[in-house]
Amino acid sequence: MLRQISLVALLVLSACGGAKREAVPVGSGEVTVISSNFDDSDPTDWPGRSPDRYPVHGIDLSRFQTSVDWSAARANGVNFAFIKATEGGDRVDPMFEDHWRGAGRAGVMRGAYHFFYRCRPAAEQARWFIKHVPRTPGALPPVLDMEWTPTSPTCTIRRDGAVIREEARIFLDILERHYGQRPMIYTTVDFFQDTELWRLQGVEFWLRSVADHPHGAYDGNSWSFWQYTSTGLVPGIAGRVDINVFAGSKQAWAGWLAARQM
Questions:
Q1: What gap in Å lies between CA 16 and CA 18, rounded to an integer?
Q2: Which of 128, 142, 230, 254 is least surrounded by CB atoms within 10 angstroms?
Q3: DSSP bridge partners of 60
Q4: Is residue 239 in some structural domain?
Q5: C-alpha neighbours within 13 Å on the C-beta side of residue 259
Q6: pLDDT, greater one: 24 or 214
Q7: Structural domain tally of the chain?
Q8: Between the CA of residue 216 and those of 123, 135, 194, what are the distances in Å?
Q9: Interatomic CA distance for residues 250 and 254, integer angstroms
Q10: Statement: the pTM of the whole predicted model exceeds 0.85
C-alpha cells in the first residue's frame, strides 16, 4: 500500500571524501541520496541546462563493466543502477547476476533492462526477461530498451511506428502483470521521433541525449531519467560507464520510489 511520505530531510556528511548524504523518508523507511563524485572523459559543453543541476545521479551498465566495487561506487554517488539483463529471446547478459547482487549488497537502488530485438515476437521476449529477472521487492521498474540497430548482423529491419508501439505495449503489459509496476522505456532521439513513441499512453521515459538537455532534444516531452553521457568515470568502476540523472529533487526521488513499492 502506498504511504504518504514526509518531505523533511536530514543533511549529514559522508565519511568518504566529504560527499554529502541526505536521508529522505520513503515508505516505511528512508533512502539516502549521495552527491555524485563523477568525472567524464569526454565532457559536453552543455548549451542549456546541465545535468549537474539534478541531485540524484546513477548509472547503467552491462557486460562491458566487468570490474565494479559497488561499495565505492555507492559512496561516490551511484544512487541507482539500471543493469542489462536480457536481449531478444535467447541472450542473457553474462554480468547480470554479479551486478544485480553487488548493487543490492551495496544499497544501490537497482532495476533491470531488456534490449528489444525486432525479429522476435514481443510476448516471447517478455517471457524471456521474466525467466531471468527476479521479482525483487523494492526494485526499480523494469525497462524496455528500444533503439535502431543498423549494425546488427542478424536484424536490421525497421518496422512502422505503429507496429513498434504495439510491440512495446504487449511487452509492457506482460511485465506489468508479473512485476506489479509499469515498466519504463529507454530510447534515443532518432528512434523516439521516427516511431512516434510519444504516442504511447501511460509510459515513463528514460531518454538518451548526450549533446543537449532532453527538453530540447525531445521537443519538450516528459522524462523520468536522462542518460547524458557514455564516457563517465565513476570511482569503483573500471573504465567508462553511462551516467544518468533522475528528473527531480531528492524529495521527488523519495516520492517516486515510494509510489513504486511492491
A1: 6
A2: 230
A3: 82, 242
A4: yes
A5: 7
A6: 214
A7: 1
A8: 34, 36, 16
A9: 6
A10: yes
Whether 214 shows a pLDDT value over 90: the answer reads yes
Lowest-confidence segment of 22-26, 31-35, 180-184 by average pLDDT: 22-26
Specify the residue for cell string 514526509.
6
Query: Under a CB-based contact definition with an 8 Å cutoff, are residues 225 and 246 in contact?
Result: yes
- pLDDT at residue 137 in the model: 93
- Tell the residue number behind the cell numbers 548526450, with chain if given: 210
Please check whether residue 18 lies inside any domain of the structure: no
Beta bridge partners of 115: 87, 145
For residue 13, is pLDDT > 70?
no
Residue type, 179: Y
Active site residue ranges: 60, 147
Q: How far apart are CA 179 and CA 142, in angstroms?
A: 8
Is 10 part of a structural domain of the chain? no
Provide mean pLDDT across the span 52-58.
Answer: 97
* 29 or 3, greater pLDDT: 29
Please report, for the domain that includes residue 73, its CATH number: 3.20.20.80
Residue 61 bridge partners (DSSP): 83
Q: Domain limits at 144?
A: 36-248
Decide if 256 is inside a domain: no
Cβ of 151: how many Cβ atoms within 10 Å? Answer: 6
